[in-house]
């Protein structure tokens, strides 16, 4: 699978690479075309510049020609001005000469006019050519700038794409190398798997032969020793004790405990709802303390007063069902006999709801007919009447399914085993329907209470009673929602636990067989308990002594190792200090050696160049050997201190050899130290990972505990609020009752006083008589 995924990934990357390569070719072509266009535009610009230069030269020549013609015109005008007075004097004498001068003048004028027109035309052409050249030059410059920016952008895109291609190529090459390595490892694993399959086939063949032999022996023993097979017949198989599943029993008891808590909350809410409804009938639409209520409401109040005798048994039946589920029993539908009792109590409560439903509807109609009822209040009362009908219908539906679930423990033919799952699913649907109906009742009753509070004739007692009823309805809604969600979360487990029963059979046949099986289970448990031997009270003396020796040796070895570690740490610190000391000494020696070499080099500058070169090379080698590490300085101190001009070759080789040997020793010691540190760090990381895993597990457990605690807190807060409200309601009722009693007492006292006064007056009259 991993190789296929990597091949797919490689193919995708190759396709992307081919696409990007094609795009790169297109972009390169576009860049080349733009470069060609820019070159052509540059050539055009050069041609325009040349034509402009030619025009400028022609303009210069024309201006020069114009200047010459202007000078010639001036000369001609001067000559004409000089010839005019002469013509006046010799007018008579030379008519022929005047005619010639006029002809010449007309010729000059025509020539001058032509030159002026030509000059003007040339000026216009020059101006137009100059303007056109400027316009073309501006256009070409702007286009050249745009093309340069586009070329820069294209070049940036090309650079980015090439960089991306290179990265993609490197990535593909790395992936290819990884895939090759992985393919090699997979080939090795395939070879190993082939060898393992061959071994497994041999083992399977041997096991098949062994099991076939054992099967033959078992069949022969069964045929000879077993009188009959009790699992063959379902009647006998139902009496066999199934395997004890303690986890299943604990889970079922936990679920039953949660269901008991939810049913208790629901029972409390139902009691409050019926009780506060009775109080409301006594107050609205007619207050019983002021006037008598209608016979219908009296009967309805009487029935509601009996609600505890129908609601309390629901809690008791659920409690008995919870107590019947223990760790030692087998909990399936055939063994839960107490479910029948709960179903009977639920049936009695349904009868109670059916009995009070007509009175409740008539009471709501009576409220609608009263003069205090508005149109909005009448609409709310009609909605509540529909909701009460739906509530009774939902309870009837729920009671039908609970009665069906109680049939396997009393009448096994009443419900087929194949219908268990459908009945359990329908119970969840009925609970969700009950929750929806209670939400509608809560919404409509809150609207009704709001409308009644706005009436001017509403008393404080009615407002308090409405608030109490609304709180009980809210508690009923919350309880119904909790039960519905709880059942939806566990319905899959209920359906899966239907298969829990005797082996090799579909389930228990009858309640009698299930009861007999439980008796056999108790007998088997008692027999196993009797066979269990008591454990030894203490460890034998010899084993305790050996354990003590092992403990002492382990503690001594631990203390010794701790001391060795402490000593080694002290040695390491001392060696580090010595290392720093000798490093400083080596640096000082290197500085001194460099100074000595410089001094010797200055002295030998005048002697010979060859000796100076050899001396500098030898001294440089010595300085490098002394500066690399202090160990070499300690190992061979004589060559460093030598001041001979030409050192011996053997001593130099020994110096280099000793230096590299000391360096190898130091590197090996550093490598060993690094290995020991890495082992220590690995052990610490492993311990920290274990501690982290334990901490995460404890965190998860604590979060679960916190969730459970928060759930318990919310449940207790709900209970506290309901009890607080009930107590407050009871206190308000008691205070009202005490006020009424005080009023009656005050009235009785006044009557007694009047009677006393009347008796005194009668006695006085009798005395006077």
From TrEMBL:
Q: Where in the cell is it found?
A: Early endosome
Q: Which organism is it from?
A: Microcebus murinus
Q: Which residues form the Protein phosphatase 1 regulatory subunit 21 N-terminal domain?
A: 11-112
Coiled coil regions in record:
3-72, 130-196, 558-592, 685-719
Q: What is the predominant subcellular site recorded for this chain?
A: other
Question: Where is region (Disordered) located?
Answer: 81-104, 624-646, 749-769
* Keywords, comma-separated and alphabetical: Coiled coil, Endosome, RNA-binding
What is the name listed in the Swiss-Prot or TrEMBL entry for this protein? Answer: Protein phosphatase 1 regulatory subunit 21
Recorded GO MF terms: RNA binding
> According to the UniProt entry, which residue ranges have a biased composition of type Low complexity?
95-104
